[in-house]
Amino acid sequence: MMKYKIWDLLQDFGDFVDYDLLKKSPPDLPNFRLDLQFKEHRENGLIWVESIDYPGLIASGRSKVELREAVFDAILTYFDVPRYRAKRLPDLLRLTLGDGTVMLPPERIPLIQVHTVAA
After folding, report:
1. Most buried of the four, 1, 23, 94, 108, by CB within 10 Å?
2. Is pLDDT at 58 greater than 90 in this prediction?
3. Which pTM was predicted?
């Protein structure tokens, strides 16, 4: 696990140098959709889904939140979205499960919050 985190940091640093400092052209973003239809399965406490539209596009999770994250990652991987683009892509996936539950993107904590007062 530690090797993966170090490798991930090195790739992030390489992307930062290439695209942010040296201003190289980032890889193109392929056309892909987030409005896909999935067939849901539940087995042994695991939820897994398979795409109806794209064979081989599958994801699983132990919880609905974990499943939603896995589906988003699986879509990016399936459509071969370059790492640099995937890390900067806003997560807009709305996953509707078979029981009607709609899993929305995680709430983001604002980095800076500004309040104004009337003069």
Report:
1. 94
2. yes
3. 0.74
